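We modelled the chain as a single entity of 251 amino acids. Its sequence is:
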Amino acid sequence: MTRLVRAEWTKLFTTKVWLGLLLGSVVMVAAFAIFFTSFAGDPESGLPAVGTPLYEELILSTAANANILFLILGIIGMTQEYRHRTATPTFLTSPRRGRVVVAKLVAYALAAAAFALVVVAVNYVVVAIHAGARGAAPSLDGDNLATMAASLVALVIYAVIGVGLGALLRNQVGAIVGGLVYLFVIEPIIRSVPATAGAYKWMPGGALEALTATFEGPELLEAWQGGLVLLAYGLLAAFLGTLLAVRRDVV
């Protein structure tokens, strides 16, 4: 298993895809942090003022907004085997396909943890500089560290979901497009329609909001409940992806 995990890291770091996704995540969360801090306290924006606990909870959880790029990281990690026709030699080298998929899950979860640590750290530095210039840089107290840790965990889980989704669909473009449509079209619709808003809290997006932070919108679960629901989605995607990878033919 250790050799398989190392092999997955070799596949990941021999291309520049990981670097593009990491830089994209850093730029995204930095932009969110700058934007929210710039308008914090403005009555028209509805954002809490700099220095308030609600502001710090919201701004430090913006690192979780990179979830889509971590989802894509996981998807690419699985689907590249089928896109580049390397799935056959990979499974011939290690005939127990379940071990290969588990190795991918472990490898990309660990890589995502390292990437998420960078993203969370950059988010905090940007916030500390910008909010500090406005006279109230957030401290690294227990509550803020818990918020940052929740964002890190959420990003790792989305990478695991990505691996599972890639194993389910196998087509890289289809899996990425499907993930984007779900996150940016389907979930927002469910969230905004009164008849379906109650179900949103049980969906990945609702669980993510509950785990990190939110200050408006439908009723959500408690933070720990959101974490468990999001983890359940990650485990379910991993289980189904492993099951289908073992049973389906490689084409």
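As a brief sanity check on the tokenised model: The mean pLDDT is 83. The first helix runs from residue 2 to 13.
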